[in-house]
Amino acid sequence: MTADAVPETISGGHLVAKALKAEGIDVIFTLCGGHIIDIYDGCIDEGIEVVDVRHEQVAAHAADGYARITGKPGCAVVTAGPGTTDAVTGVANAFRAESPMLLIGGQGALSQHKMGSLQDLPHVDMMTPITKFAATVPSTERVADIVSMAFRECYNGAPGPSFLEIPRDVLDAKVPLDKARIPEAGRYRASTRQAGDPAAIERLADLIVHSEKPAILLGSQVWTCRATADAVDFVRALNVPAYMNGSGRGTLAPGDPHHFQLSRRYAFSEADLIIIVGTPFDFRMGYGKRLSPSAKVVQIDLDYRTVGKNRDIDLGIVGDAGLVLSAAAAAATGREDNGSARRKKWIEELREVETKAFEKRLPRQLSGSQPIDPYRLVHEINEFLTEDTIYIGDGGDIVTFSGQVVQPKSPGHWMDPGPLGTLGVGVAFAMAAKFAQRDKEVLCLFGDGAFSLTGWDFETMIRFDLPFIGVIGNNSSMNQIRYGQAAKYGEDRGRVGNTLGDVRYDEFARMLGGYGEEVRDPAGIRPALERARESGKPSLINVWVDPEVYAPGTMNQTMYK
């Protein structure tokens, strides 16, 4: 460069975009604000799509959903103050669900620090408890460097979200390109795949070989680790019955001889060895109390802090689900007798329990009653799913029904909020799923209360031409809460603060340019689903379900126990 040459410069927003591109980000979910517009300008230059939504919570949920579908981190960009606080719920949901995403929030200029600038709030202080990393970017030269740092921290142990606030003058300023550190793609993160302690692997193999009645729970980390093939090989080689929860659903296809669902309580009370993979002993597991006290319990998890939390275990292994299961299977199958043949009777015993439970419930699933029995609705949805249908559950009582009946046909085809129990994720998850895999069909079952929280982003689905099949189980109530209130305070106080209007969501869909249909007769559910599929539009099938019928989980109030 000659003495009078002007050095090439780059703005903070363009440095953000370069760092996102290096991480493999191809879409950001956002709601506009003056603090963040230079990021948009940079994304255009880097070929990153900008998807603008109607509420920042949706942007954060979409980034979470995108990470779950793709295995890459998602990214949401929101403005300062209320933009960032609106996104808190989405970040918190990702935190409990172990989903890697980056939320970038705007901030007032550093030159106006503590002066009361527009939308100034202590974002980092608020985000620190619900992220793996939260920081302010202090200078334009450091923008890309700290974005890469945030992504790296997303994968520290079990995955999770990071947060960065970037002051407006840091984003807008331009610095010489040679003064900015721009980490190179693939050169600022190490592999996080750990195979576990070899001695622990051998001990797990011993436990399996000598077990007469083993059972395994394949949790969300099986999908997070993309360990489907290893999990399938493990249960087949060692003849171990498998149960699945969270994103682990679909690891084994329905009808697989090792796929079990309805006999879990029986299995966990009768098993002599229980292997928990990628699922904490939280409320979904009764904090570990629902496992037989006489069984040997093994817990495999990405996060050391999760292993042995809330319940004593016989063996804990920290590592990647796929590598651990693969190594354990190899160690066990190398024995003269791995015990798989003698477990045939145990498999048959569980299958009998499974069949009886299915047959007991089948009349409800085929019920012709009006208002429609929720079991009939979720049965029709389950029958309607294809191997390429991504199923999303967004609701309370209605989704509790679906958890017993709906079985995704392929791995990575089940999405639910996760352990935070956040309502309102449905449209955002559908949005993320369609952006990530446009060739896949997406079906989302909403409770009417859940859809009401973020349903206006149905318009975003229209605007970006993202067809999906939305089904609303409409009982004009927050029924999961209603049941608990009536049980605790009596029927005369059972409808305080939980009753909604009789909303025609099908008309809402048509108003926005989508496909909408109302169903009151259970015989009409399947034809309505078919017409929604054929429409090629975002759709809402408004199904009126019986408000006096509750899921067993709701009646047992298991979420609070």
UniProtKB/TrEMBL annotation:
Record-annotated membrane-spanning stretches: none
GO MF entry, a single one: flavin adenine dinucleotide binding
Residue stretches making up the Thiamine pyrophosphate enzyme N-terminal TPP-binding domain: 11-120
GO biological process: one example: L-valine biosynthetic process
SUPFAM superfamilies the record matches: DHS-like NAD/FAD-binding domain (SSF52467), Thiamin diphosphate-binding fold (THDP-binding) (SSF52518)
InterPro entries named among the record's database cross-references: DHS-like_NAD/FAD-binding_dom, THDP-binding, Thiamin_PyroP_enz_cen_dom, Thiamin_PyroP_enz_TPP-bd_dom, TPP_enz, TPP_enzyme_TPP-bd
Domain of life where this protein originates: Bacteria
Requisite cofactors: thiamine diphosphate
GO cellular component labels: acetolactate synthase complex
Every Thiamine pyrophosphate enzyme central domain range: 201-327
Family: Belongs to the TPP enzyme family.
Protein name, entry field: Acetolactate synthase I/II/III large subunit
